[in-house]
Specification:
The protein starts with a helix and ends with a helix. Helix 6 packs antiparallel against helix 7, helix 6 packs parallel to helix 8 and helix 8 runs antiparallel to helix 9. The protein is mostly helical. The protein is about 80% helix and about 0% strand.
Amino acid sequence: QQALDRALALDPNDALAYSLRSNIELVQNRKAEARADAERAVAADPKSSVGYLSLSLARQAEFDLNGALAAARQAVKHDPANVRALIQESSLLFGMGRMKEAVKVAERARQQAPDDAMVNTVWGFLQLARYRPDDARDAFQAAIGQDSTLGLPHLGLSLVLFQRNQTDAAVAEMRKATL
């Protein structure tokens, strides 16, 4: 974070530095500071997809889902190929109970990045919610194959296995999710 502070001292309009600092502040659970830095990123570069994505994450952390969704959509508007922004938008829509929209956005992300572990993880949870356990299992397994260190696909796969009364296998996946 000190390097970002120095970069901002040299260039107080460095949108990327504000965005990165916002993300660090979120990890540190400093929500207000994260939102303020994300807003500075957007002010410094109003077309910065990365700035809007940081703003979306900060607003989500503050439970402002409508604001988070609006910022995620701005991120996608400014960079339609930003898969992280698409996944953020899809996840927010899913959390807001807007399943059809969430699936549509996730499908766009899958077209752009079919081998991305987070894309497949979000897709797996969407399929699980749509009562498509085979599709969910396939998506979670693909995500695990792409990045076995992520916890969420292991958690998702454990839910599929619990549904099928495969308790031992489900517990094993759940343990992997918490490592």
